[in-house]
Amino acid sequence: TAQLIEALHVGVEPGKTPSGLVVANDADYKRACMLVHQVNRLNSPNIVVTNHSGERFPNIYRTEAQGGGREIVQFDRILCDVPCSGDGTTRKNVRVWEKWRPDDAHSLNPVQTKIVQRAAYLLKTGGRLVYSTCSLNPIENEAVVAHVLDHFEGALQLVDVSDQLPSLKRRPGLATWKVMTRDGELHDSPQTAMLSTMSRSQRRHFDSFFPLSRERMDELHIERCMRIYSHLQNTGGFFVAVFEKVAPISVDEKKKAAAKAAEEHKRFEERLRALSEAKEQACAADGDEDEGASKRPADEEDAAGAEIDAKRTKVDLARGDGNEDEDDEEGEGGADSTDAASEAKAPYMPNDPREDPALPENPFLFLDASTGELKKILDFYGIKESMSRNGFLSRMENNSYRSVYYVSDSVRELMVLAGQRLRVVNTGIRVFNRNCVRDADCAFRLVCEGTPQLLPHLSERFVVDVPFGDLRALLEEVNPLLTTLSEETRARIAGVPVSSSVVIRYDPAAHVGDSEQPFTRLTATLAIPCWRGNASLSVHMDKNQLCSLIHRVLGKTIDRNAE
Predict the structure, then answer these.
(1) Alpha-carbon distance 369 to 352, whole Å?
(2) Do strands 47-50 and 500-506 pair parallel, antiparallel, or not at all (unpaired)?
(3) Under the phi-then-psi rule, with left for phi > 0, alpha for psi from -120 to 50, and beta for the rest, what region is 499?
């Protein structure tokens, strides 16, 4: 995600925003919050972090440019880093072996397939979709790719990327493989397996674990997939496939896919009914009907436990996400089990999936820059008209807000179109925070993460350029007195209102010949937001970030957490 955001900002001037955006989605709320923490350091107003099951990412509609009808918002590029067994990470995570089983992939394959199918509907024609796992099991890799390509009948194609990253050692995708069932038996086709040893979900999707015919696999160019083995370059094990959407998935194709899914579901029910009847006849012949009736639920419950363990193999995988059809899993409990059972009765429709409920927290609301507290903030700090007034938003609580965030125009458009359909965990960058000083002229202060975005638009009154000596004093001391700074710096700070924010800026290019230089050569300007007190300054920066900055600039290790 960080690399995608960095690529989006290449060549963009400071204070400007790219025209695109990145939507980062994770099915697990805790992992989504971790993602927020990671992307915050990039200070991008073009990121939206959401919390949806990948196969149920909602449709977002906008009005067509011609005709006035509705069309679905689609994306130019989609990366599907799907839940997997993680068996390619055994070098760094040896504990994978403790719970690994040959049939772990059986419960993951249906979820992975649905995620890719959903992504295909959200991809623009001509766009690219990357499917990746940290697993080497073909049931999670080539099986998913082959059946998705076959499902869309030419609308998706594999892209030959063998000329990309030539120094990366890789192997082509597999065209044939065998499937091991829970009893340890290897099978070349689903007809040779004993379905009675599997759970209901495994039986339903068992055909999709096997490769298609060799001729069909060659037609799909399955060799264009990339397998990265650990021993080739001392890395982890990965699988990557790059799709290109070469044709629109029309309404007719959607109807055909729905009919095919319904027919498959019908065949599955017929096979299940035939298996049940055969089992009942065998039990009746042995005169042991009671034992035969009680054996099947026990077997299915045991198999369900295997599926639960497999889903937990990936760290923090959302409990029960994407397993709507696994209605024999008794361990999920409550309403989740009821929903899963009801959904199993209908085929999955990737063009119009069931929506996730809204997050139980206050949604983001856009603020009017022409009225209220936001207007006072912008007027006080002299924010220029060059900064768009449409991107300010906040979470409201009791008709008030503690923080103000800023997003690009592209993010605003997406969020306005989506309304409450998107489960937004976080978005944009925080630019203002409410302070706790009652007599301050402005109730809000600047925030470190939003300073680079605000700086080109901020009134010069609140920006003070300093030499390295003053920067050192600011970093070495806690709340340094103004008297410890140079006379020129004190004169500039005197023009800043007391109890407000001021940005201390150090430009290394402007002080090349100075006798005092940073411990590490700086290639970019430092802009540090501070609080202007009556007689001192206070740095407004996370303590861990401040310690890192001190170590880089001064070459010292100072534990501000202990102060």
Answers:
(1) 37
(2) unpaired
(3) left
Say if residue 332's pLDDT is above 60. no
Q: Are 68 and 85 in contact (CB under 8 A)?
A: no
The dihedral built from the CA positions of residue 116, 233, 173 and 310, taken in this order, carries a sign that is: negative
Q: What is the SS3 assignment for 201?
A: helix
Tokens linked to 291: 């034992």
pLDDT of residue 301: 42
CA of residue 403 relative to chain centroid, distance: 23
Q: Which helix (H) or strand (E) holds 528?
A: strand 526-532
Catalytic pick from 134, 225, 448, 547? 134
Confirm whether 225 is a catalytic residue.
no
pLDDT exceeds cutoff 50 at 297? no
User: How confident is the model over 25-54, as pLDDT tens digits?
Assistant: 999 999 999 999 888 888 899 999 999 999
User: Can you tell me the distance from the alpha carbon of 447 to that of 430, in angstroms, rounded to the nearest whole number?
Assistant: 7
Q: How far apart are the C-alpha atoms of 107 and 84, rounded to whole Å?
A: 10
N- to C-terminal Cα distance for the chain? 35
Q: What is the pLDDT of residue 257?
A: 57
Q: How confident is the model at residue 319 (pLDDT cuts 50, 70, 90)?
A: very low
